[in-house]
Amino acid sequence: MLQLARHGEEWFTDPAAGSVLFGHFYDLLRQGGARLPERRCGVCGTTRMLTERLEGRVSCRRCYRIAHHSACDGCGDVTNLERVLSDGRRLCQRCTNKLPDENAVCVSCGNQRLIAYRGPEGPLCSTCRSSSQQDTCTVCGMVTACAFPGSDKAICKACSDQASIDVCTICGNERQCRWPGTARAACEQCSNPRGPCVSCGEVRLRHKRAEDGSGYLCWACVPPIIETCTSCGDDRIVNGRIDGSPFCPLCYPRQPESFRPCTRCGTVTRLIAKLCPRCRADQMIREMIPDALASSDARIAHLRERWFQGAPSKVIYAFERDTVACTLITRVLADPSLRTHAYLDQAGSEFQTRAVRSVLIDHELLPPRDELLARFEIWLADALAEIPDPSERRTVTQYARWRHLRTLRGNTMPSRAGQLSWRRIEIMGIIEFLSWAHARGASLASLTQADVDEWLTSGARPFLHHFLKWAGRGDRSRRLTAPAAPSVGLNPQALSDDERWRLFADVTSDPSIDAHTKFAAGLMLMFGVRAAKIVQLRAEDVTITEETVIVRLGAAPLTLPTELAPAAIGAASNRTARRMFVESIEQEWIYPGARAGHHMAPDTLNARLHAVGIPPRLARTSALIALAQELPPVVLSRLTGLDISAAIAWSNAIGANTSAYAAAVIERVGTPLPILRR
């Protein structure tokens, strides 16, 4: 009280100058409700733990250490000294780590590394000391991998991450922070020191101090250690050393000396975080789908068991890259309310969500849907919203529903990209046409034929024929006309029969080509079946007996030749589709696609045929020319599934129609038709 009577006003004005007892008294007053500012370091002014005293003022440990920096006898840097040797030399932490007695064989991983802790069982490196082991979390009570195992502070990663969430005092964002719950809370991005690189000048994370001590280098500017690899003899970056000999990143993982026993199963191999690839992948899968979540739903449990059978490299690669699919599947499985197509539509692009959507549909966690049609409907709504006039927007919407959506929704087959591309082009052409009319002060109801002709002569898209005809019938506009888009004629260019049979023999006899590609090549080279028809083959369309293989492409069954039968059997028996981490068995399609419930895209099959040296268009044309010369159009249509009008067109195009051929001959020679007598 006497000291307070003498120095109280000065101490309350500057509490850092007070004694240790006054500091405790000051903090108790604040805890009791007194409106006093928090005590700060008398040197840097931060609200750290004030455990030191510097020049008569209370200071933090950091300022105290900076004030006592000295020149290191090893590297010469002015920094904090960590160790004094027997000969009197004083070393910093960096030079101390280079001493021989600071490195030893870790008793946990068996690697020669810098030792962070020497316990009763032996030395431990920093990685093994901080590694998680199975224990009961003191927060959630679950038995899982915990930090600080074997102590009363054991905590799992999920609880640890939740406890570390705080508002960063530097950037103001709510993130996982260091020193959460204190006035020093800082997120990982803000707590890592950044500064200008002495080499490139960019403000980046500090990676290594420059050799001359002038500053820090960023990761990109640190010169790599390049030496001659002991195995391959090339001058490459050193990835590891065995008995002092350098090895490059390609050769070091192949050396048996770099293998270590897995800490879980004991398998001696190249370890990833002290685990073999199989155990590491299983650990990642259990982090994604914990035991409690798997036990709550049999479908999720079956999904996890399927993932356990997948390739470990795929799981590890996806997790290490922190892909959108891994993050999304974890969130969706944990929350049943998120297992909807609407949530996946807004969670990412179609490419990012395709794998997640497919694996959920395969395990009946999400209802199937026509994905291309659904995305076309979303696009159509956004495109029609650009029409400013409400009545015209309603008219185009009705036309799109009548002409496009009605047909697509009535299909029994999934939609194809080719079916939707020309529909998008037509809708965009109509929108551009109406926008052009509005710019001229006209509307759909007031347009004349002269306006349509002017629009068509300006080089715009000529896809107005069906829309103008439909709008005129419904009295939404005058009766206007526009030319229909020209149809693509038959291409007479084809392969010779010798070349076609040579390609067929080369493909069917090559063991490196998979059965699906062989089967498609045979159907295209022999029967002229297009790729869009081949990918629509279902499992019940192929019938396999002891003697023959029958394929139903059209109304009548088609018996395959002996050379093509093995490829058909192989394709029908191996209907696997790529999914997340594993291969899924498709129950419906012979050619399954990347999307669940969809067949392969025709462009993908054409690309595979091109890769083995078969031009799809020429192969199909040559086969149809040969068949049209031998079979009537009706038979050709029933066997190959070719439309009857297309079959007739092919017959007429190559002169296979006998009456047309005879008429042409008579007209050319000038002789009368012979009279047939009974």
Structure description:
With 678 residues, this protein is of the alpha+beta class. The protein is built from 28 helices and 30 strands. The strands form 13 sheets. Strands 7-8-9 form a 3-stranded antiparallel beta sheet. Strands 10-11-12 form a 3-stranded antiparallel beta sheet. Strand 13 and strand 14 (174-178) form a beta hairpin. Helix 21 crosses helix 25 (616-630). The protein is elongated, with a radius of gyration of 38 Å. Residues 668-678 have low confidence and may be disordered.
Summarize this, please?
By secondary structure, the protein is α+β, with helices and mostly antiparallel strands.
Topology at a glance:
Blueprint: H1 2-13, H2 20-31, E1 52-54, E2 57-59, H3 61-67, E3 70-71, E4 78-79, E5 81-84, E6 90-92, H4 93-96, E7 103-105, E8 112-119, E9 122-125, H5 126-129, E10 133-136, E11 143-147, E12 155-156, H6 157-163, E13 165-167, E14 174-178, E15 186-187, H7 188-191, E16 194-196, E17 203-205, E18 208-209, E19 216-217, E20 226-228, E21 235-237, E22 240-242, E23 245-247, E24 260-261, E25 268-269, H8 277-288, H9 291-296, H10 298-308, H11 312-320, H12 324-334, H13 341-347, H14 350-362, H15 371-384, H16 390-409, H17 417-439, H18 449-457, H19 465-473, H20 497-509, H21 515-527, H22 531-534, E26 542-544, E27 549-551, E28 558-559, H23 565-573, E29 576-578, E30 583-585, H24 602-611, H25 616-630, H26 633-640, H27 644-653, H28 658-669
Antiparallel strand pairs: 1-2, 3-4, 5-6, 7-8, 8-9, 10-11, 11-12, 13-14, 14-15, 16-17, 18-19, 20-21, 22-23, 24-25, 26-27, 27-28, 29-30
